[in-house]
Amino acid sequence: MARAPLPKEIENQVLLLCRRRCCICFGLGGDGEEKRGQIAHLNRDSSDNDPDNLAYLCLPHHDQYDSRTSQSKGLQEGEVKRLRSDLYKALPSLIANRARKAPEGAEAPKGSTNVGGAQTEPEEGSDRNVRIAVATFIVSVLALVAVWLVVPEFRKWSGLDKAKVEDQLNEKGTISGIVVDRDTNQGIGQASITVVGRTEQYVTEDSGNFKFEVAPDPPRRVRLRVSKIGFQLLDITVEPPVDNLVLSLHK
Length: 251
Ligand SMILES: [Zn+2]
Fold this sequence. Notes:
Layout: H1 8-18, H2 23-29, E1 37-41, E2 54-58, H3 59-66, H4 77-112, H5 126-158, H6 163-172, E3 174-181, E4 192-195, E5 201-203, E6 209-213, E7 222-227, E8 234-238, E9 242-249
Parallel strand pairs: 3-9
Antiparallel strand pairs: 1-2, 3-6, 4-5, 4-7, 7-8
Helix pairs in contact: 2-4, 4-5
Bound molecules: zinc ion.
């Protein structure tokens, strides 16, 4: 039976929802990287284009899911749906972690033009894109710096800023420490720490260290949720200010 093509609109919707991450790679292997892949019909009925019946899978997983011989022992429809919803929930922090690494990524193409020592006179063509990317990056950084400098000045000038009062409150809300692997005692970088019930979210340094302030108006007790792909979630209640907190995660 010929496979009816998936309407473009639905295809785009599915691709956007998963950001081209494979939910099986993510759910079973903790791999949240972008993949080349295809959209699978989970009930194996290729005419059922209900978005709930569709999941973007990497090519190997798509083939594995589709092949009729492996259906009996392979992944079940309900399992994949569950993995898919786990992926959708985890995407904001996956994207946030990736955004943190973006500045390093922006450096790479710049370095590559350096081959042959011709950095000051870049070739035409592909280098044009590199220059545009670097220029965009620099302009964004400058814009951020400008905002960072101007906003507090404006607040001070307009009398909006009760800086001293806020600083005192901030100090009360300071929480610092390290996230470590319970088995190896090594620090865990890029672990995410959220303050339950509030909007604050932080990511640990490469060493696993973190320091942040629950501000303004820190409550007496704060519930922290620590998460990292490949480790179990950790919930812990602390009373800020806290120093040298050690949060160890189980595999
Ligand atoms: Zn996969």
